[in-house]
Design a protein that fits this description.
single chain, 305 residues, mainly alpha, 3-stranded mixed beta sheet, 3-stranded antiparallel beta sheet, 8 strands, globular
Length: 305
């Protein structure tokens, strides 16, 4: 109850844009963040402070430490799970990130650190992407410059995706699947990805989910909670019999083969109670909050030329 009251108090508390300051966090526990990263955090913190959903996320994750290091692989900004989650930043690569890319990557890292799931799930990635889309629409409502840029990008990506849809239909008419044509490759730039995802979400949230599942930013071992639940329903009482093959990519049990990542996640979760707790952390992205976002996205797209 105290935790709930604390969260309600945080969400209700006004946070002024002028009150934001970059966190004073240590690098590997030994020294302060470099001035360049602190400046980048100030700039993106200012962007968050102008939007209610951004202020809320910062307030809920202000205690999450930011660690600056050198790491050539993986994302330049990523969250690290644990009893006390943290956010790691690659000091070299982050300098080359455009501000909007930095802003959206940090939003994702903060949200995932707040959820702090013990395993990688596709559900968490779907949920955080929807939160990012909602944040982008919130930002467009209070930032005319960003609204203009997002509107222009949305018009462009809508044209691209409609052309790809036509290509898909043409391929099907000629006896080909053509699935690779639509929605096709995700854009590289953050603004274009936002516009791309807004259109996909308006068409069908599952088009967005399918597109995200192939995104290199998503952990390769992320699995759907529904897949974990199905595995537990069938083999929950025999998890000790699972045998992994093909370097762990395949799991064998009771004469059937399964995705190794799904089996490992099921072994970690073990029962439906734990899975329900994970679902609660992810939230109602597929139902209540998802329906609300659909209305906002469709309204946004109807306003385009």
């Amino acid at each position: 109850m105290k935790r709930v009251l604390f969260l309600l108090a945080v969400l209700a508390a006004p946070i002024g844009a002028a009150d934001y300051d970059a966190p004073t966090t240590v690098d590997s526990g030994t020294r302060l963040l470099t001035s360049s990263l602190r400046e980048a955090l100030r700039r993106v913190g200012w962007e968050y402070s102008l939007v209610e959903s951004g202020r809320r996320l910062v307030a809920l994750t202000e205690s999450v430490p930011i660690v600056e290091l050198r790491r050539r692989r993986g994302l330049p900004i990523r969250w690290v799970r644990g009893k006390n989650p943290k956010i790691e930043v690659d000091r070299e690569r982050v300098r080359r990130l455009p501000l909007l890319e930095f802003e959206m990557m940090f939003f994702r890292a903060r949200w995932l650190a707040l959820a702090n799931l013990p395993i990688n799930t596709l559900d968490a990635e779907y949920a955080v992407r929807q939160e990012i889309l909602s944040y982008a629409l919130d930002k467009a409502a209070v930032n005319p410059k960003f609204e203009k840029l997002l509107r222009k990008a949305s018009e462009r990506e809508r044209r691209v995706l409609r052309e790809r849809r036509e290509g898909l239909e043409f391929a099907r008419e000629h006896g080909e699947r053509g699935a690779v044509l639509f929605p096709g490759r995700r854009p590289k730039k953050a603004l274009s990805r936002l516009a791309f995802d807004l259109y996909l979400y308006s068409e069908d949230p599952y088009l967005l989910y399918e597109s995200l599942a192939s995104d290199f930013r998503i952990p390769s071992d992320a699995v759907a909670m529904d897949a974990i639940e199905d595995f537990l329903k069938i083999h929950g009482s025999r998890l000790g019999e699972v045998v992994f093959r093909a370097d762990g990519r395949v799991a064998l049990i009771a004469g059937s083969a399964y995705n190794g990542d799904v089996a490992r996640a099921a072994i970690f979760v073990e029962d439906g109670t734990t899975l329900a707790e994970l679902r609660e952390k992810v939230g109602t992205y597929g139902t209540v909050s998802g329906e609300a976002l659909s209305k906002r996205v469709n309204e946004w797209l109807r306003g385009l030329q």
